[in-house]
Every structure is written in structure tokens, then in C-alpha cells.
Amino acid sequence: xxxxxxxxxxxxxxxxxxxxxxxxxxxxxxxxxxxxxxxxxxxxxxxxxxxxxxxxxxxxxxxxxxxxxxxxxxxxxxxxxxxxxxxxxxxxxxxxxxxxxxxxxxxxxxxxxxxxxxxxxxxxxxxxxxxxxxxxxxxxxxxxxxxxxxxxxxxxxxxxxxxxxxxxxxxxxxxxxxxxxxxxxxxxxxxxxxxxxxxxxxxxxxxxxxxxxxxxxxxxxxxxxxxxxxxxxxxxxxxxxxxxxxxxxxxxxxxxxxxxxxxxxxxxxxxxxxxxxxxxxxxxxxxxxxxxxxxxxxxxxxxxxxxxxxxxxxxxxxxxxxxxxxxxxxxxxxxxxxxxxxxxxxxxxxxxxxxxxxxxxxxxxxxxxxxxxxxxxxxxxxxxxxxxxxxxxxxxxxxxxxxxxxxxxxxxxxxxxxxxxx
Length: 422
Ligand SMILES: *Cc1c(COP(=O)(O)O)cnc(C)c1O
Description:
The protein is an alpha/beta fold.
């Protein structure tokens, strides 16, 4: 699939007059079209709800767009719960509810989550006791399942749950529901996250089958009927041009088919399907825009940018591929091989290694694709680098700043007890 930027060079030249590079920019039109399609894909399920994974793109302005489409939020920490609360998500504000999927959870986070009426997703059997002694057991709860072993789709290994820290074993899971039922829980859910960034329409249906079969067994052996099944995150995006993007309509239909095959005959046709997608909801609709400020010719050819791994960590951290378009040179041949770098004192600070691109001139703007999820969010301050601004390209073509760039004073704010920085 050809990867096309959602802004032109001319637009960026206008934008930088107000907001200098580097910055993250998001495409409101793309976000809205995608969430609409997502809802349509699961509209066969009466209770369907997407709980957007806040950690992917924790910007209130973007979360508010999803809120218009009846999304809830999935939080993983105190700060995310606080943001959800301030944005008006809560149990009483359905459809805009809160899931709280966390692990190694501090007591105060359970207490706050329960106060907000969030659905607590228990990561471990021992958390039942912990929760009871801290926040108390709520009437509605979710349990996280880890089936262990390798997670395969036909013969392809997708991921290795047996090596993941999340969730409960099957034995623990069944025991957990028994104990929770005895403790007065009235509404139950089941959750699992077995593979990340899957680029196949079969992930959700395969995962759904595993969870639906557990639901049937739970009904038979423990006598509880789940009210929701949470397929969590993991539906990926096509970072590489040669990949074929997921088709959410086909994914929704795939889950529908398994639902009709497994849950409906077992009398569980009322189960609501929940999702907690992050990457799929925002990834393609955000980009990091940076300017080429240096070129260097040593044993290799380097282009030095004004952004660095602090703005987008995925290439440095996972060797992840992010497509790069040199704005204004979309139709020029990719006949130059570059390492595209930031300025950190770290040799892994490279957005691309040995990448074939058009000839880059100093001052060119690079559009680094698919940075809308787990992009800005994974930023950090190494080398005293400051967080960039986030901008929203609105549907009418105007640009709105949705987070200002950090300043040196922000960076030093936690030294505000020291006279020298006052
Ligand atoms: C990270 C995470 C998500 C979102 O994952 P994506 O890959 O962005 O879809 C959802 N649920 C939980 C529990 C997570 O940890």
C-alpha cells in the first residue's frame, strides 16, 4: 500500500511559521473516519464498546474526539485515571466508561479506580485479596487470562504468552471467578491480550474463539454467565508500504462468526464485546515532522534532524520501521541511501538505517509516518531534550495546537525548591 502523508510540503511551510519543528501532527479527518468504521464493524453486537487505550496517545483533545463516538477509555495508571476523570469518563457516564487494565498495581490506584466506578481488570489471582484489603471488591469485575504457551494463528507463531508477565493461568482464572462470586460479585468480564501489532484480520477472531470457549466452560463449571468479553488491544497497522493494512470490517465479521458459532448456542448471545485498541485507533493518523538540519559524509551518509529518539522511541527501542516521506519529493526516485539520525549522544538514535530516499537537502521536511500511537507517548528527556508540541490538523484544514512544546523551565520545574532556578 502506498504511504501518503496527510499534509503537503506547502501546508507544513505555513505551519512552521507558527510552530517550529519538530512536532507531532494528527489528522482529525482520519481519526473520525476510522472510529466510525470501527463502530460499524462491531455494530452487530449490542453492547459493543471501544475503550481507547490512553497510554497509546494520552492527549485530552484527541481522546475527546473518540468520546463523541461513544468510546470509553482504558487506563493503566493513576495519572491516566485522573485524566479520564477530568474528561468526564466514569461509570455513571455510560457509554463513556473506564476500564482499568493494570499490572503490579499500587493500592492507591485500585482505590481511585473503584471510586471512579472503573471496571477493574484483575491481572492476578493474588489481586483478589489485595483488592479486598485495599479498595474492597466491586460488584462488577474483569479477569485477565494468560493461556501460556505459544499463540499461533494456524502455523504462524504470533507471540509467546508463556513468557509474558500478564494475566492468570487457566486454573487460577476459574478459581478467581469462583472466589469472586462467593464474595458477591454480580457482573463478570474476561480479558486477554495475546499478541501486539498484529497485521492480519485473523488475530481478533482467533483470540475471540479462545475466550468464547473459556466463557462456555465457565458457564458449565462455575455457573457464571459473563456479561462482557474484552479482546483488548493488539490489532496492528501497516508500518511498511509492502504490508496490507488490516480490514476492520473483516475483523468484526470474523469475530461475529465465532460469536455465532460458540457463544450463541451456549445461551451466551447477550455477551458484550469490548475492545481496548490504541495503535489501530491513532497510529496512522499521527506523524512526527522534522527538518533536515545537517548532512554528514563519513563511512556512511547521514542526515541529521531536529527531532530525535526522545520524540519517537520505537526505532531506537525495537528497531521498528517507520516510513519516511521527504515532503515535496514524493515523486522523486529513492536513489540515495541514508541513515536518518537525531542528535542524542546515543548511536541508536536513528529513525532509519540504510534507507533509500530521494536526495535530501538541508531544510527539507521529513514526514515520519505512523507516529500517532506509542509515539509522543513514549517520549523522554534524555540529553535534556524537550518534549515537542502536538498539533491537530482539523477537517477544515486549519491547525490547532493541542499541546505546547516543553520549555527549559518545564524541564526544571521539579527543582522549583532550589533558588538557582527561580
Ligand atoms: C497497550 C495495551 C492496549 C493497547 O494496545 P495497542 O497495541 O495499542 O492496541 C490495550 N490493553 C492493554 C491492557 C494494554 O496494555
